[in-house]
Amino acid sequence: MFTKYAMLILCLFLSGIASAQINYTANDQVTTYNGQFRPGINFGSYPTYSDEELAELAAGHPQKGIRGVGVKAARPGLFESFTELYGIDARVHTYQYYESLGMKENTVIVGFPSKEHTDDTYYCPNIPSTLFKNMYLDIWDGGANGTAINDSNYYAKYIFDLVTAYKDYVRFWEIWNEPGYDYSGALGSLPPGAPDNWWDNNPNPCDYKLRAPIFHYVRMLRISYEVIKTVDPTAYVTVSGTGYPSFLDAILRNTDNPVDGSPTADYPLGGGAYFDVMGYHAYPHFDGSLRTWVDSTQSWSYHRHSDAAADGLGATKDSMQIVLRAHGYDGITYPKKNWIITESNLPRKEFEDFIGSNEAQKNFIIKSVVQCIKDTIAQMHYYKISEDTDYDGAYYEFNVMGLYKKLNNQAPIFQTPTDEGIALATTTQLIFGKEYDADRLAQLNLPQGVRGAAFKDEDGNYTYLLWAKTSIDQSEVASANYSFPGGLGFTKLLKYDWDYSQTNEFETVPITNISLTGTPTFFVEQIFKTNSTTFCASDSIQFTANTIAGADSYAWTFDGGLPATSTLASTKVIFGTSGIHEVTCTIFDENGAILRKQTQKINVESPPTPFFMLSLKGPILRVDSLSGWTDAQSIEWNFGDGTTSLLPSPEHLYLSSGDIDVVFEASNHCGTGQYAQTIHVVAPVANNLPTTANDSVVH
What we know:
Elements: H1 4-19, E1 38-42, H2 51-59, E2 73-74, H3 80-86, H4 92-100, E3 106-110, H5 154-166, E4 170-175, H6 214-231, E5 236-239, H7 245-253, E6 277-282, E7 291-294, E8 299-302, H8 306-326, E9 338-344, H9 358-374, E10 377-383, H10 419-431, E11 435-436, H11 438-443, E12 450-456, E13 462-468, E14 479-482, E15 492-496, H12 500-503, E16 507-510, E17 514-517, E18 521-525, E19 528-530, E20 535-536, E21 540-545, E22 553-558, E23 561-562, E24 565-566, E25 570-575, E26 579-588, E27 594-605, E28 611-617, E29 620-627, E30 634-638, E31 644-645, E32 651-653, E33 658-668, E34 671-681
Parallel strand pairs: 1-2, 1-10, 3-4, 4-5, 5-6, 6-9, 9-10, 20-27
Antiparallel strand pairs: 7-8, 11-12, 12-13, 13-18, 14-17, 15-16, 15-18, 19-21, 21-25, 22-24, 22-26, 23-25, 26-27, 28-29, 29-32, 30-31, 30-33, 33-34
């Protein structure tokens, strides 16, 4: 029964929403985003995998043996065409799962209406608008329809419901994907004064993605800003994928006046008033970052290498920043915008005159993280989770962009990361959550030809990235020698290579005469050392504090260790179980003040304990599941008929019947584990047997 009391509560709620409606724009205030940089992912479409499985591939799931590739945020779409069909809450559980995996502060693309809610006006002959109908109705109706929002303004209703449902998991709301996509292929790039250019003329609806006047996109931004900020004042409204600075200029110089975009009392402000974050897509291989026109030779000068590609991220940002400043978004007239990159990558195979190599792609992904952090870019979303094809089958550059090789329709644990995926995982493991320190970097006095960054953890310990700057077209070969300055408080460092996330290997090195290449190397300060760089459960591991001037006493904690604590300068510890264990050493002076403190995460391993489940379809054996092997350095299947395989999930064809023992063996530096299962094979008598999908077929 709907009581008077319930009615009163509803009215109070609606009046609260109404009274909370914002009275400011991005011309008045923009909250600087102070969250840590998050590497993100554009998942792509893989119908045989659930959203949750793709998230496990991206972020990792240690309990399932999935290492992941270091992703900390996602950029999916939640389109109205989807929410109308499946319900506004259809992906709430997915975002909760993202959160549990450490993927937070996510970016979401909004827009793309259902057929029923699409504007059916033809602003271009024979091509209808792609935007929402009824956007020029009032945004709010004071609760006339039982909600504060005007239900007849379909976009306002959709964005209100969406933000209400997902605000705990989404920080950046991206208003449409690539709204400035230029179907003409040329007009957006034309300079002022050229016929039909977008600096002097508003984009013709026939020529770009929205198929509607630019004022309608500004209207969409206005609705977005007012509704999103009302529901969640901590959220950020984002414009990204404008393609050309000229399209951004069109957004900024036009209001949402449906007649001509001019300012009036009802439509007083340009589009810049309605977003906090400027985003862009950065594909250095074709966006102009890697070549320069030389007038004297009337030809292009190319610089196709990873450092130029990373530099290109900043150059693209600068081209957008010039336009923003011209319209007053300079921190003086109006607040500056925050920044995000919503798509980026390099191909690992060469097409046309584009850069393309495994080395360039791997190096770029590490350098891009550094570049984004230095340029205060909140997130960078890589394209994409997996390559589209096998390397040899790729027919254009976007086929070979991905943090994994082509997904093989098997479980996530059987997928193979690309080198760029491994490199991103290493980068995330070693610097995520640490603060970039430009002053410390300056103290390193890096010589010309050496690049790097310095990151400080919460206890004041530094991680350094260093590399030799690449400079040769179509080459990642570079070399340099570097010595850290004296007086920084250390004489040795822990050195981690780009593939540490796979190998778990590191070494202690002196701080002088360090050889660098074009691939970044990580160096971590240590205030204590161990007697080994590989750790096995049940081994006795010696931990020893470094000699530090003024040290008087010590306090150790060993997560999962025996003993769990110690007050000695050097102590032996046994970890009974494998996994990531935190070790903290605190060094005090004679007055009990902390001199140094550091927490290191060490990976304690055990011999593999494999387990598998098999299925037989006729004479064909398939691996349904395999666990307990992901930390192995080597694996081998023995099919019991004289054949073997080194693949984690092979298929095998038997040519004779009988009871056969199938054995899987996995080894690492801690030992070898084995699991066996007896199967009963019934092979057909005929010789015209079907073939299988890999090289383990025996003829």
